[in-house]
Amino acid sequence: MTPNQIELVQSSWEQVKPISEQAAELFYGKLFDLDPSLKPLFKGDMKEQGKKLMATLSLAVASLTKLESLLPALKDLGRRHVQYGVPDESYQTVGQALLWTLEQGLGEAFTADVKEAWTETYVTLSTVMLDAAHEQAA
């Protein structure tokens, strides 16, 4: 990720944070529309799950300039997702739902450059998680 991409992700996230509860609802609604088979993986209170999602995203976005400090938490999250039964292909679906949610929340501010920066961010973070998940499965 370039410094400009990191700045785009961080500044656009600041615009999403005030609507984080609605963003979480949009995200999970879209996720389950895209793949209804994922819904049973979420057994708890979805409002709480949404808060956890937004807190995790906030931490990840804030840590983009020092990604190495985030790696242990990402790897742990990837390993936990194996225990939850999360299939590998769902990472792509989550990425789609995330980008769609950001587009809804940011409107015109979701430019091609912002989309590219978020895509690069998601691919970077999810690859670390998937690699850790595969290490655990091996």
TrEMBL record:
One Pfam family per UniProt: Globin
PROSITE patterns the record matches: GLOBIN (PS01033)
PANTHER family membership: ABL201WP, FLAVOHEMOPROTEIN
The keyword Metal-binding belongs to this UniProt entry's keyword annotation: yes
Family recorded in the similarity comment: Belongs to the globin family.
Organism of derivation: Crateriforma conspicua
Gene Ontology process terms (BP): cellular response to nitrosative stress; nitric oxide catabolic process
Signal peptide: none
Protein name as catalogued: Bacterial hemoglobin
Keyword Metal-binding annotated: yes
GO MF terms, alphabetically ordered: FAD binding; heme binding; nitric oxide dioxygenase NAD(P)H activity; oxygen binding; oxygen carrier activity
Domain Globin intervals: 1-134
Swiss-Prot/TrEMBL keywords: Heme, Iron, Metal-binding, Oxygen transport, Transport
